Amino acid sequence: MDSAERAVFALDIGTRTVIGLVCHLADGKMRLLGAEIIEHGKRAMIDGQVDDIAHVSACVGKVKTSLEQKLNIKLPDVAIAAAGRALRTRMVTLRRLLGEGEVLTTEMLRNLEMEAVALAQAELNKESGERAAFYCVGHTVSRQVLDGYELSTAAGHKGAEFEMTLITAFLPKIVVEGLYAAMDGSGLEVGSLTLEPIAAMNVVIPPELRMLNLALVDIGAGTSDIAVSRAGAVIGYDMVTVAGDEITEAIMQAMLVDFTTAEKIKQNLTEREEVVFVDILGLTQTAPNTEIMAAARSAVDLLVSEVTEKILAINETAPTALFLVGGGSQYPELTAAFAQKLGMDEHRVAVGGATHIQRVLHGTPESAGLESPEYITPLGIAWTALQEGGHSFGTVTVNGKKIRQYSYEGVKVSDILILSGYYKYEQLVGHMGKPLRFYMDGRLTTISGELARPAQIRLNGEAASLDAQVSEGDEIGFIPAVSGVDARRSVKEAAPAYRRFMVMVDEREYYAGVWVLRNGQFARENDEIADGDEVRTVEILRFGDFAQLIHLDPQQESYWLNGVPAAAGDLLNPGDLLTSFDPAREAEGRRETILLELNDKAVRLTPKADGSAYLLLDLFNYVEKDILERRALGLRCRLNGREAPFSAELKSGDAVIIE
């Protein structure tokens, strides 16, 4: 069949069923070549996600094989859709202070875009608790502001402060990988991927109608997908995990039947006024439709309430009109329930079906067997693939790991590395270490940060840059960039003359030397200097400066330096001894500390409590024991080289020999 060469194989993998259509484009509409629908034999899909990959693959394989046999063609690839709940969006704003005269280049703006996408990716990954839990499916710069003025493009402009806002869109990794794995298991390549609510919108609410404020709800068995349009664009998507199965389960409970029987009862509610069925006890029962619908009303109310809440969250108010599609949309009372909950005229809530299908399909939907609203989404998947080509997650390899990417048009190495979630922005570009600027004794000093080590990239074995274009199947080898170390300086490194030493003042320890003040405070040699610090060296080497530092007042009290009266200009050295002496108390007999030599050893005599003078006799307490033992034989005492009596008075600097 020649037309089959240009045909698209579309699959709608629902919670209860798998629907396959083969269509091709002719004269602006689709022509149906074949259709197949089968039910899952078990619960293989949960809330729009593939749960049992093997089972879903088997079902898809059956649909594929049946259509290939009917049409006598091979179907190597397929168009599919992900549930609307899978889409996650993030709005991210980045602000940058610009240097004087700095120009916003195209490269700088692109780097900011990648940084914003990486930030959004990190937020989603943090929420999910997994690494690279989401695939980015695209991003759009929505706003650029320079110094308070909004620009359509900031490239080439100069200013002080720049702000960029992006809208980023992501699909959970588990959704994409599950769908692809199911397709791989059935021997199919994914040629196109869209979102279920987008597919349904393209049939029921085409672009020319999106100036109107319209909402669409695709009610399946396990999920209800939501999309809203306004002012020419789709403004939001969402979903709830309440759909047709909740109504079926309510009927099970009320009528005491199994799930399959309850599903048949639900489907027959629109065909007759009462339903006959066999309950789990084997008894044949007859129940009027009104009784069954009354029993299921709580489930209907739950569905309507949750969907309405999502619509209002997106749109803030009731839309102008609401379309219901999908198999679950056929349940009686749904349109009235939605109208009442949203405060809308009931005539503005409609079930999509044949009228909408006829916009995109040749012939009548009835003749094609596609008049049911459950065919809206699979037709939308086919229509989207034929009209727009859809999108596909192709594969590239990064350091041996396979990465799926949503479309490769215009994609660069940097995009793959950032959007994959495996690498951070700074690992791609690398930053030079921050410089350190401080004032040293009044002069501005700048220490440069360390240079970054650039990333190493190989694309299919050849050296490449971050801007190199990537195609599906490429292999990327990547060694991340290493940012330079920020500049650092310690107080000792900034002021090599820094030194301090100990001086004793009346038996207390103090420090003198070449000190460093950092922002007016004394600093230690290992203290780190911060950007903008004011650093100043201060010499505290003379007695006058030292006295001022530790708040001594030589005007009120005299000081001796190593036993000699101290003067303001005297240089201090390590281990110096300063002692105080109050002239006012000298008249009362207080004497200074005496430093002298006894038998060639230094002796320090502190003033006596009564202020009396030290005599030669007092030194017997300091004489070695063996000398004192000879006292009976008589001791000889010499003071400053001359023999002296035991009553001789001592003073600092004396040299005494006792033998």
What does this entry show, briefly?
The chain is α+β, with helices and mostly antiparallel strands and 659 residues long.
Q: Can you describe what's shown?
A:
The protein has 659 residues and is α+β, with helices and mostly antiparallel strands. Among the domains are: 207-358, Nucleotidyltransferase, domain 5 (2-Layer Sandwich); 392-485, Ubiquitin-like (UB roll), CATH 3.10.20; 489-581, Ubiquitin-like (UB roll) (Roll); 589-659, Beta-grasp domain (Ubiquitin-like (UB roll), Roll). It is 26% helix and 32% strand. It contains 18 helices and 37 strands. The strands form 9 sheets. Strands 21, 22, 26, 27, 28, 29, 30, 31 and 32 form a 9-stranded mixed β-sheet that branches. Strands 14-13-12-17-18 form a 5-stranded mixed β-sheet, sandwiched between helices. Helix 1 (53-71) packs across helix 3, helix 4 packs across helix 12 (376-388) and helix 5 packs across helix 6. The radius of gyration is 45 Å and the shape is elongated. The model is unreliable at 584-590 (pLDDT under 50).
Helix content: 25-40%
Integer average pLDDT = 82
What can be said about the biggest beta sheet?
9 strands, mixed
CATH superfamily caption of the domain at 207-358: ATPase, nucleotide binding domain
End-to-end Cα distance, whole Å, is 133 Å
Radius of gyration: 45 Å
Oligomer: single chain
> What CATH architecture label of the domain at 207-358 applies?
2-Layer Sandwich
Choose one word for the global shape. Answer: elongated
CATH class of the domain at 207-358: Alpha Beta
CATH topology category name of the domain at 207-358? Nucleotidyltransferase, domain 5
Structural class: alpha+beta
The percentage of residues in β strands lies in 25-35%
Poorly predicted segments = 584-590
Number of strands: 37
Per DSSP, the total helix count is: 18
